[in-house]
Design a protein that fits this description.
The protein is of the alpha+beta class. It contains 1 helix and 2 strands; from the N terminus they run βαβ. Strands 1-2 form a two-stranded parallel ribbon.
């Protein structure tokens, strides 16, 4: 997907990045947001998932 960049480095079309696991540092998030990128941090429950067995 191509995103055009305006003068001053901001994107002209919306871009949302989804990240999981360890959150990016506030510095990285701030730099991305300065360019018009929305950062969404999600998590799953894979760490709580155990093997499934038929009994």
């Amino acid at each position: 997907m191509k995103h055009r960049v305006r003068k001053h480095g901001r994107l002209t079309t919306p871009l949302r990045i989804t990240t999981a696991g360890a959150s990016p540092s506030p510095t990285i998030i701030g730099k991305l947001e300065a360019h018009g990128v929305t950062v969404v941090h999600v998590y799953g429950l894979t760490e709580a998932y155990g093997a499934v067995h038929d009994l």
